[in-house]
Amino acid sequence: MRNILFCGNDKVFDGIITCILSIVKRTQTTEPFKIFIYTMDLRDLKENYIPISDRQVKFLDNLLKEYNPQNEVTKIDVTSIYNTEFRGSPNEQCYCSPYTLLRLFAVVQPRYNFALWYRHFKCWICCSKWPLRKIFNSPKIYKRRCSSI
Asked: What is the pTM of this model?
């Protein structure tokens, strides 16, 4: 199973579709993909800070299963982690949305303690032993190692 993590609110839905389609159409693996989506509900800060909905996740799951029935999409609501770690911080008033901080929570989920690869589109790709170049064919990939917590 190849694990991929996307982070954001409902505004990144179209980008997730584009990335998923790019991955499954350009990869020649038979190994299934497990897509994780970190999202949170911050409508109390701003009315358009809407989490990715279950309906959108179901759509992505059905789309992914067209390529391999073992593929799956899982939504993880990290609102409570955000509220514990970042609520009231200066980052909430920054020019960018608090959703840019979601990728930081990848290291606090012990069961997903993989090597993390950062790619444009604020997409984290969690992998352990598969060649990323076969999927993205890009020279601008930055590797980050996470220590266990």
From this structure: 0.73
